[in-house]
Amino acid sequence: MERRIGPAARPVRAIAFDKSSTMNWSLAWHQDRTICVKERIDTPGYRAWNRKNGAIHVEPPFNLLERMMTIRIHIDNVGNDNAPLKIALGSHRMGRVPEDSVEDRVSECEQFCCLAQAGDVWLYSTPILHASDRSLEVGRRRVLQLDYSVDELPDLLRFNMD
């Protein structure tokens, strides 16, 4: 991580995904555009405040996201039938993609399925366009996802993990 974004890199959000036969979903192509913060403190450039699973999220200036990295640690095998993460290669260099342009941008990129064995780790630029289908396989697909940043937030705003 240090070689990618710098020695001050630290985890700022952790998410556990657990797809199974009883909890199975798909995600359309999108960019991750929010960060998780401790509390809402209105700050210039930070907008679209919301709650996800009880946690406060906000859309920061996009250049903050461009400096972040995401790590996915695979707890289970992820084959073609087990809803692998799909990424649009190079899309992290496109800047903030308007939601109504996402499909067009994805079609301009080579798409890649991130297959994995239990214990594998994937590292990617946080704003890359990505998606996931519903799992076709009966079983689990557990992933621990960690977002890393080198940035300090302005004023009294703090990442939830600080």
Identify the notable features of this structure and list them briefly.
four-stranded antiparallel sheet, mainly beta, 162 residues, 11 strands, 3 helices
Separate helix tally: 3
Radius of gyration from the alpha-carbon trace, in angstroms: 16 Å
The dominant shape is globular
Number of strands: 11
Overview of this protein structure:
Helices cover 9% and strands 36% of the residues. It has 162 residues and is mostly beta strands. It has helices at residues 2-5, 62-66, 102-107, and strands at 10-19, 27-30, 35-37, 47-52, 55-59, 69-74, 85-88, 111-114, 121-125, 130-132, 141-149. The radius of gyration is 16 Å and the shape is globular. The strands form 3 sheets. It has a 4-stranded antiparallel β-sheet with strand order 1-11-6-9. Strands 2-10-7-8 form a 4-stranded antiparallel β-sheet. The relative contact order is 0.34. The protein is built from 3 helices and 11 strands; from the N terminus they run αβββββαββαββββ.
